[in-house]
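Table 4 source record.
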Amino acid sequence: MNHPEHLSLRGRRLLDRRNFLHTAGLSTAGLALTSLLAAEGLLGDDDVKTVSGKQPIRPSFSAENPYAPRESHFEAAAKQLLVIYCPGAVSHIDTFDYKPALTKLHGQKPPGIPAVTFEGPTGTIAKPFWEFKPRGETGKMVSDLLPNLARQVDDFCFFHALTTDTSAHPQGENFMNTGFTMEGFPSLGAWVTYALGTENQELPAFVAINDPRGMARSGKNNFGCGFLPAAFQGTDFNAKRPPSNLYRPQSYSGRTDKRTVELLQRLNAKHLQQYPGDANLAGRIASYELAGKMQTSVPEVMGISGETESTLQSYGVDSGSDLKQEYAKNCILARRLIEQGVRVVQLFNGSDPAGGNGITNWDSHANIAQTHALQAEIMDQPTAALIADLKQRGLLEHTLVVWATEFGRMPFLQANGTGRDHNPDAFTCFLTGAGVKPGFSHGESDQFGFKAAVDTTSVYDFNATLLHLMGLDHERLTYYHNGLERRLTNVHGHVVKEVLA
């Protein structure tokens, strides 16, 4: 019997154990070297293509100044991005997606209703918990749950046939905000700041304003940088809680503080000279220097004492629940950050259920009339005031505003008879501001709001459209990681051109 090393397959010699290990070792080393060189931008990439067949466009930025403003791929409709995110899944059929058939079939259980959904057994069809009325010149039907936002529908561009890949909240948040259900991928804000940097070098490029009650279920993953350089992670603070360690102790004089910072800058510069080309070191130094600049820039932008009384009243800073007042201050902070040129601001309305007592987000498996009403009281007036304020100041001309949630809710009740379960097959989000058609609705769900029916739009399509409005080609904005040209939209997505102004 021949020794295995002499066997051949179609004229090609099989590897023996020694040759196999030798070849595998060389391959592993080669892959590792290729990955390192690519990460440092030292590989020729004339033949590199994305899955779309296009060459990637990797932003060129200095590790010493990762926040410097950069050119977009093409002329952008929007220069800044504000995302208003509502964790917990807002019910589209109780807010913006009017379905008269639900009233006709209220209390019935027609064929086609599944016996069990995400949370458990299902009940009967339920009409909207709030009355719908025509609003604005367009006559858009919106419920009484959100009366302030309802008055602005002529400025909004609705997506009514959105679908997602999951019915679980953490994975849904991840998918909407990062393009993947798993953790560890860059957020939309991180991709935008990686591509474009920011205009204001005294403030972070990307700020995440978390709910006064805490973070959403997926926490920092919603505004994380994933495998992108750490400089592009969102900076987390809100009107109630400024960045930690920002203010110097009262016993420490301004003169001493300034001299200390100057000494640190000289030491950092010397240290960097000893390790030329160390991008990680340069990035850390840049982050620390930004933190130093924020000692003066952030307190100034966070103060609302200079706001007029009429502005404070319009946001609801002194009316309603304590949570509403805190969220209203966050909305003012969002406007002030946009005003100061921050590239991306992500504003959260809702937190993880573990982040506080009682109702903390839009999740409504029981008593939706109470849970949605409480969240709407917090969100509606301040959010509407924020959008109106941006418009009045001319900021909407170059700012894209996104109102989003992770999925919708079912047209039928759960078996408990008071709440609606998760619905990944149809939900509504809207855009307003730079580059989008005002008073426009794209797509339709079916007659019950159960499934997307006309012009179905995936989260990939939605994110591709957001990047397009920021002047970025979602198929070419990539980052080489673990042997792949990664992107926000993975290998999917198409720009929804119908919504572009």
